[in-house]
């Protein structure tokens, strides 16, 4: 992939190491987050992984020619932990367990 405002987001696919992955959730444009939420609501999903291709994660997809290329109803949780900036992990597994146990 490319350099997005000084950040290499991903240079390889699927099987890789934490040195090749970085959490960027704090920089994702709000419209992208909203689109993911709307997709989950449309399909009545509690958990969904939204894969996208974009040259600039901090700008709206439409503005930069980005696309949502895949929806995963069984997203891989390891992607949230196999990152070089571990202090920024989203704690997805913990949130899921807390949700399940609160029901």
What do you see in this structure?
This protein has 103 residues and is an alpha+beta fold. It has one domain (3-102): D-amino Acid Aminotransferase, Chain A, domain 1 (2-Layer Sandwich). Helices cover 27% and strands 15% of the residues. It is built from 3 helices and 4 strands. It has helices spanning 30-42, 61-64, 92-102, and strands spanning 3-4, 7-8, 49-53, 67-72. The chain has a two-stranded antiparallel ribbon with strand order 1-2. The chain has a two-stranded antiparallel ribbon with strand order 3-4. A hairpin with a 2-residue loop joins strand 1 (3-4) and strand 2 (7-8).
Structural class: alpha+beta
- Overall helicity: 25-40%
Count of helical stretches: 3
Kindly report how far apart the N and C termini lie. Answer: 41 Å
Summarize the structure.
The protein has helices at 30-42, 61-64, 92-102; strands at residues 3-4, 7-8, 49-53, 67-72. By secondary structure, the chain is an alpha+beta fold. The strands form two sheets. The protein has a two-stranded antiparallel ribbon.
Task: Sum up the structure in keywords.
two-stranded antiparallel ribbon, 4 strands, alpha+beta, D-amino Acid Aminotransferase, Chain A, domain 1
Topology (elements, then pairings):
Blueprint: E1 3-4, E2 7-8, H1 30-42, E3 49-53, H2 61-64, E4 67-72, H3 92-102
């Amino acid at each position: 992939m490319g350099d997005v405002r000084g950040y290499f987001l991903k240079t390889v696919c699927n099987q890789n190491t934490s040195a090749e992955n970085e959490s960027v959730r704090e920089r994702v444009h709000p419209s992208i987050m909203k689109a993911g939420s709307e997709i989950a609501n449309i399909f009545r999903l509690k958990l969904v992984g939204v894969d996208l291709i974009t040259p600039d994660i901090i700008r709206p997809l439409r503005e930069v020619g980005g696309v949502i290329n895949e929806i995963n109803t069984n997203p891989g949780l390891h992607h949230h932990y196999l990152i070089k900036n571990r202090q920024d992990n989203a704690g997805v597994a913990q949130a899921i367990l807390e949700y399940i146990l609160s029901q």
